[in-house]
Specification:
Elements: H1 9-12, H2 14-30, E1 53-57, E2 60-63, H3 64-74, H4 90-113, H5 120-132, H6 137-148, H7 152-172, H8 181-190, E3 196-197, E4 200-209, H9 216-233, H10 239-249, E5 260-265, H11 271-277, E6 285-291, E7 294-304, E8 307-308, H12 311-339, E9 344-346
Antiparallel strand pairs: 1-2, 1-9, 3-8, 4-5, 4-7, 6-7
Helix pairs in contact: 2-5, 2-7, 3-4, 4-7, 5-7, 8-12
Length: about 350
């Protein structure tokens, strides 16, 4: 499924419908904000659901309301544009959303066939939690009227449906996806290339820039600004001081991140900067380094020599990654099994 990874099993059920509440409330507010007609959204008309059937899964109807909620989950920025999606992306977003709601319906039907149940107390709590996600009672009533025909009975059925989906996914995916320490160690040993540490430098920069195709005079002016920046940078004594100065005076794009380039592999650094930082100690500030029309001052924060990570460093993260891989594989397998013999019509 494209655009968004499948939901982890423990998030699939109630959180699915809870997120709908928050998204719907936000959309109701943002729908009164003028849409940005420029850029990717140009020519894209807002989608207005009317309850039209977009697919049937073994006879069960899925509507354009279901589809739009999932499209918002895939591309939430559409709510800031009165329900419009980028024109070039909309077909793929719609396709991914349609696949997801079909999958969820198949999971729900499988839960019913297994006669899975939801304890009344759990259902009551989930329903109460759902109501609390609305900013006020009036917004909740608006949702109830628009999405559930004004019926709390219909809402309760939807919450129950989500909990059943969550329950089956827990059985078929979450409970089977755990990765052991032994499995993680075996992966670590068989994929050493993934755990090599390249020679890297963590740096911040402050830059003065001349225009493209700069004249000699413009280059001279940029260098003069850089000399002024260097005097100020030389008075800084730590990461934060240099970063705040970068935010204030730097002319490169990294000024919005306190000039922080974070950890960069040596092989990816410009030769002029690499030559400078190799002679520096962490905490030192370079002189002016010219790269074509850019005059840069570098602060070295850290040097990480080339080497190998040890298993203890990566064990927990590796187990989590292997578990995510297992989740994806188990969900994909469940999806194939549920589709086998299913009757799906799309309109």
């Amino acid at each position: 499924m494209r655009w968004r990874k499948a939901r982890p099993a423990l998030l699939a059920g109630f959180l699915m419908i809870s997120a709908t509440a928050a998204a719907w409330a936000q959309h109701m507010v943002s729908s009164h904000v003028p849409a940005n007609a420029a850029g990717d959204f140009a020519g894209s008309a807002p989608i207005v659901p009317v309850g039209r059937t977009v697919a049937r899964v073994n006879g069960a109807a899925l509507t354009d309301r279901d589809l739009l909620r999932e499209m918002y989950a895939i591309f939430p920025y559409a709510r800031q544009h009165r329900g419009s999606f980028p024109k070039a992306m909309e077909p793929d977003i719609r396709r991914g959303a349609l696949q997801m709601i079909e999958f969820e319906e198949l999971v729900y039907q499988a839960a019913l066939r297994r006669k899975m149940a939801v304890a009344p107390a759990r259902l009551d709590k989930a329903e109460a939690d759902f109501r609390q996600r609305f900013p006020n009672p009036g917004m909740y009533q608006m949702y109830l009227k628009a999405e559930c025909q004004g019926s709390e009975k219909i809402l309760r059925a939807r919450v129950r449906r989500s909990l059943l989906i969550d329950g089956l996914l827990k059985l078929e995916v979450a409970d089977k996806s755990a990765a052991s320490v032994a499995q993680a160690r075996a992966w670590f040993r068989s994929h050493p290339e993934q755990f090599r540490i390249p020679d890297s430098y963590a740096v911040q920069t402050i830059s003065a820039m001349a225009p493209e195709k700069a004249t000699p005079e413009q280059l001279k002016e940029a260098r003069q600004r850089a000399e002024n920046y260097l005097r100020q940078a030389g008075s800084t004594t730590n990461y934060e001081q240099f970063g705040l100065l970068a935010e204030k005076i730097s002319e490169d794009d990294f000024r919005v991140m306190m000039g922080d380039h974070q950890l960069v592999e040596a092989a990816k650094l410009p030769a002029q900067i690499l030559g400078a930082v190799r002679k520096m100690q962490p905490g030192q500030v370079s002189g002016i380094i010219q790269i074509e029309r850019v005059f840069t001052i570098v602060r070295l924060n850290k040097h990480v020599p080339a080497g190998m990570k040890n298993f203890a460093e990566v064990r927990d993260a590796l187990r989590q990654q292997l578990q995510r891989n297992n989740v994806e594989q188990l969900r994909a397998g469940l999806n194939r099994r549920l589709h086998k013999g299913a009757r799906i019509e799309e309109f």
